[in-house]
């Protein structure tokens, strides 16, 4: 099977089909079959395959789908007409999991496609192979052949494509077409209208008998409906909704004259009356406009000034509050730092005092402990020695380096002095007293050996020889068998 995969060209596109048997990943050979892949990708972007069924399943052969009518006779390509077949020498029907175009003859490709459920060499150079099922989703695709089919290879319970998603688009110029977007928008709008109609129907069917105040609520509802009907078609203004004394309740145009103006235009008396009424109304409007300017503009100015002043006062108090808060936070931080320094100083003083107390206790209890145990006395002496050295030891830096160099020079001088004073003999090296510095005069001596030659390799003592033998070697196995047989024969005799 691996040699088949090696012979197939690399893919350059990927589409996800969400079906009732699970997700199916389809990788596309867009370079080898550009027309078929472009058609398939565009239809997937448009949602053309959403809701379509696999209308034909031949077990061990193919599973066919992609027909929106579900009959096997529908479907169209994005080109508006059937497009030509595309054959490639490296794309062959030799295994399961291939995706090819379904057609009724040569160069008759539309929207229908099929999956191969096994090797189908009879379809070679008859159908366009444009993709393959990738990964473990192959096992989801093989579930399409499960189930019963009738005599026409139509499943009794067909599986369907729920939706499609283009994961890797090999054609950058392909996008979802506007027609499909409009169709989806219409469906969403219809669904919203249906929900709204259902909600209005539910609101219309109010049952006031279920409420303890049902009769009162029903009367209020009737009054509200009547009022809305009366006010329907009438304009509303601030004159009707407020009790502002600055607004006049006298209508600008007299209703009597306005109704008279809608009568017969040929009546001269009516025309004269309408003209007079219009002139009077215009004069009244001009006067009201002048009065309105003096009555309404003056009270508004103090109101705006009050709002500005109130806003300034509010901002001032907010700034003062913010400054006070920042000042308080700074004081708290300063106090915290001061307390931290004091606590650190107290801790250092306590440690120094404890160290001095331990030293005094050690001095007081030294004689008693040392009298009881000599080993403990040696331990305390050594501990005291290192404690004193630690106190005199400087911290890291130039002085510490000078002290180290001075100690090294002192040790070298002492070593030289001991060697010059009394050179150690090899016989007396093991007889030195404890605590003596004669060991400084010791020297390291090696055993003199001549050059090792190749002929000396055979002259090796048996104690120094190292036998390397493999127990799995046939010769060693025969030797062990021979020894075992001789041992058994000796025991018999």
UniProtKB/TrEMBL annotation:
Biased composition annotated in UniProt, kind: Acidic residues: 358-368
Biased composition (Basic residues): 477-493
Location in the cell: Nucleus
Residue span of region Disordered: 219-493
Stretches assigned to the PPIase cyclophilin-type domain: 19-166
One GO BP: protein folding
GO cellular component: nucleus
Gene Ontology MF annotations: peptidyl-prolyl cis-trans isomerase activity
Basic and acidic residues bias: start-end ranges: 226-242, 313-356, 369-391, 414-428, 436-448
Family: Belongs to the cyclophilin-type PPIase family.
Protein name as catalogued: Spliceosome-associated protein CWC27 homolog
Lineage: Eukaryota, Metazoa, Ecdysozoa, Arthropoda, Chelicerata
